Amino acid sequence: MRRVAVVGGGITGLAASLRLLASGEEVNISLYEASDRLGGRVQTLRIPELGVTVEAGPDSMLARKPAALRLIEELGMGDEVVSTRPEATKTYIVRGSELCPLPKGYLGIPHDPSCVHPPLLSEVGLRRALEEERLPFDVPEGDMALGAFLRARLGEEWVRFIGEPLLAGIYAGDVERLSLYATWPSLVDLARQHGSLVAASRALARSTRQAPQASGRSAFVTVQGGLASLTDRMEARIRESGRAEIHTRSRVTALTRRGHTYEVHVETDAGERFEERVDGVILAVPPHVARDALRSLVAMPAVDTFYQSTATVVMVYPRDAFGAELEEASGFLVPRPEGLTITATTWMSSKWPHVAPDSLAVIRAYVGRRGQDDALLLPDDVIAARAADEVGRLTGARGKPLWVRVTRFSEAMPNYGVGHLARVDEAEAALRTACPAVAVAGAGWLGVGLPDCVEQGERAAMRVLAALHA
Ligand SMILES: Cc1cc2nc3c(=O)[nH]c(=O)nc-3n(C[C@H](O)[C@H](O)[C@H](O)COP(=O)(O)OP(=O)(O)OC[C@H]3O[C@@H](n4cnc5c(N)ncnc54)[C@H](O)[C@@H]3O)c2cc1C
């Protein structure tokens, strides 16, 4: 019987573990997780006294990327998949303390003069964005900053007030430092296909109006009991296999080689140190952690993924604190120049049917993005008070939240810099040559979304199994 160590118990490491165990190969696993629980960034808050189930961490999965939904089906949770409420379609952007609707179309890219009104974009800013349709489109040869690409196409005002909060916001990132090809390659593909981003936005607006999703599901989905019920089920399956040892509070500090096998060096929270001999290893941890653990085996080129800290603030209000328009809103984004503490909100109870009883409204705010994260130095109660105050002023909420929770995610959001994909290729090539039965995977490498993480974990498992056969 072979043994594979999986390092990191986030969704990537859990998906890798399940794939190893389901492969039909004679393989046992040892799963090492530095913290006291599995699931990593996935954290669901359950407030039984209010009947609320809400995410502190990731809140949805992109249904178009199949890996996560396939996993959910395999775990027998297909009946628990929840779609977003169809009526919660409006996203707003704050401009000058006003909530302005995000232009209809693809990613807030305007496609006709009636799409956007001041104050969101000035007439000059809108005209400049629409001119993009007449610009020649040359596919950028090498990688470049997302901000530079968007500015050249759609102009400065669109980037500052729509593009950055929307496209960099997902990464809590800075649009000037994110890689175009590692974060939004679809922009290049669409512009190539339609000749311009404006034409692509128009075509997509038309096609989504005409064709509802064939699956009957919304573009983003989750599961009824919250995403922690998914990672809990993954953990349960791993334990039920009888072929896994799970070590929490156990940090892997190094890998060394012993003949054809590897030794995993572990340090526990209690200060105990030990080594385990294994045949293969999956490092489902950030690139700098993997590189450090591998330092005596391979001089792996640095991938240099920057990790931004962030926090979420979940606020539960009486439903009647807000007007009827709440039902139709999925949230709002805050452009950097607005200078607020919060960077965005998701209106969880409007977006999802399962989050709260009708008598309550649950709003989640985000705090901290690259270059604008001073607020994270403040104590929880001050962050919570600022978030509630800003949400109150922007939405006209009557009264204060009944319940508030700040959850901090230290160095949580990977920001892929320009040239990221080439660096990952180089690092993986060096690893394949030096240590064929060691694979890397996870949010810091090739995609931060949950489906990307599941897919990477599964692919890493297959790669290690193939190396064990070679
Ligand atoms: C606030 C927030 C909102 C998000 N929203 C969404 C969303 O709506 N949809 C979406 O698809 N994605 C979202 N994401 C992104 C997504 O949650 C993450 O990209 C994904 O969960 C990362 O999974 P992972 O397993 O790669 O990494 P992690 O979840 O970070 O897991 C890595 C694990 O490795 C452990 N570890 C690290 N070093 C060691 C070591 N040396 N030894 C042992 N263990 C170690 C860590 O403790 C951690 O548990 C969000 C993220 C955040 C923070």
TrEMBL record:
Molecular function terms from GO: oxygen-dependent protoporphyrinogen oxidase activity
Gene3D superfamilies: FAD/NAD(P)-binding domain, protoporphyrinogen ix oxidase, domain 3, Protoporphyrinogen oxidase, mitochondrial, domain 2
Enzyme class: oxidoreductase
Keywords: Cytoplasm, FAD, Flavoprotein, Heme biosynthesis, Oxidoreductase
Top-rank taxon, per record: Bacteria
InterPro entries tied to this protein: Amino_oxidase (IPR002937), FAD/NAD-bd_sf (IPR036188), Protoporphyrinogen_oxidase (IPR004572), Zeta_carotene_desat/Oxidored (IPR050464)
UniProt catalytic activity: coproporphyrinogen III + 3 O2 = coproporphyrin III + 3 H2O2
GO biological process, one term: heme biosynthetic process
Primary localization: cytoplasm
Pathway recorded for this protein: Porphyrin-containing compound metabolism; protoheme biosynthesis
Family: Belongs to the protoporphyrinogen/coproporphyrinogen oxidase family. Coproporphyrinogen III oxidase subfamily.
Classification via PANTHER family: PROTOPORPHYRINOGEN OXIDASE
Entry protein name: Coproporphyrinogen III oxidase
Organism (species): Alicyclobacillus vulcanalis
